[in-house]
Amino acid sequence: MVLVGPPGAGKSAPLSYSEKILRQIDGVCIAPSSVTTASLIDTLQLSVRKVLHPYFMQFNSLQVVASELQNFLPAYEASFMGILTKLYDCELYEERRRTGKVQHIRIDNTQLSLLAGTTPSYLSTLLPEGAWDQGFTSRTIFIFSEKRHTRSNLFHDDEEDAQFYKELEDDVIYDLRAIMNLNGQVIWSNEAKAAIHAWVAGGEQVVPDHARLTHYNTRRVVHLLKLSLIASISRGNTMSVQPRDFEVALAWLLEAESFMPDIFRAMSTTPESRSMDDAHHYIREMFRKLQGGVPEHYLVGFLKHRTTPQNIQKMIEVMVKSRMIRHEYDKSGNSSYYPL
């Protein structure tokens, strides 16, 4: 799961707090912030967990918490992305590599979870166009928001609030420790099975229709199954999925998916559009200083340092047609621009 938003949207706070909580839970192994392909596998190999009741089971489970995805994925490497895709399926992982001597690595039961945050601009830099047709993005739920995080209390000096959040943190840690002791098969009730079968038979509505989410759509059922398990465990220790768990999971999924297309809009910022935003700001500032329209040669002079001469008039036309600015002529026929 990746939280996506502009700088200052408040992604780092919940991610850092999540890592703080998880580090207090015995049995949870946290990956380093920066890894190579080889070191990720080495860390996973060391992250052994053993279950003794009701039967013995051993597996390797690793949690990645990256408040900045750029630290964990500084560049798009096909081999690294392939590893993440392989580990998603929680199956046998095996490799042989040579580092002065032949080393054989075999991990029978793997599990890796990724919780990260990033900006739309970094996603557009990291992921090549074809990446949205490949495994990693189809296996990732992207949570997008453009809302800026505001702090109502910078100093946390309200004793009642401080006590409330301390108790809430203690409750979360207590619940997570209880969850870590759960094991065995989770049973789907017949009613929950019927609910998800009906949803699939009905076309899995509402289906995201953005072209870049075509391959993501093929994994929506898997996402929903996993979210239903999470909803069940968050509700209690019954180890059963009920219709209400499916409904909660579906609400989570549909809400996240309703904002996913906005990621691509935010990613599509071009140098020209940034220059037009700068020009719009310039027009507003000059309008305040001049107490009136901004002469055309001012705007042309501003843009000539930001684009090629042949693009200047086209950019001004786009700004007018998109209602960023208004174009007027004075009584003398001089051309001026006004901010909108």
- Count of DSSP helices? 14
Global morphology: elongated
Structural class by sheet pairing and helices: alpha/beta
Number of domains: 3
Strand order of the largest sheet: 2-3-6-1-7
Q: In the CATH hierarchy, what is the class of the largest domain?
A: Alpha Beta
How is the CATH topology of the largest domain named?
Answer: Rossmann fold
The CATH architecture of the largest domain comes to 3-Layer(aba) Sandwich
Strand content: 15-25%
Largest sheet: 5 strands, mixed
- Low-pLDDT windows of residues: none
End-to-end separation in angstroms reads 38 Å
Give the tally of β-strands. 12
Structural Rg: 26 Å
Order of secondary-structure elements: EHHEEHHEEEHHEHEHHHEHHEHHEE
| Helix content range | 40-55%
> What is the residue-mean pLDDT, rounded to a whole number?
90
Account of the protein in words:
The chain has 340 residues and is α/β, with parallel strands linked by helices. The chain has helices spanning 12-22, 37-46, 69-72, 78-88, 120-126, 135-138, 159-180, 190-201, 214-217, 220-235, 243-267, 271-290, 296-303, 309-321; strands at residues 2-4, 48-51, 57-66, 93-98, 102-107, 110-118, 142-144, 187-188, 240-241, 294-295, 325-329, 335-339. The strands form 4 sheets. The chain has a 5-stranded mixed beta sheet with strand order 2-3-6-1-7. It is elongated and about 90 Å long. The two termini are 38 Å apart. The relative contact order is 0.10.
Draw up the topology in text.
Blueprint: E1 2-4, H1 12-22, H2 37-46, E2 48-51, E3 57-66, H3 69-72, H4 78-88, E4 93-98, E5 102-107, E6 110-118, H5 120-126, H6 135-138, E7 142-144, H7 159-180, E8 187-188, H8 190-201, H9 214-217, H10 220-235, E9 240-241, H11 243-267, H12 271-290, E10 294-295, H13 296-303, H14 309-321, E11 325-329, E12 335-339
Parallel strand pairs: 1-6, 1-7, 3-6, 8-9
Antiparallel strand pairs: 2-3, 4-5, 10-12, 11-12
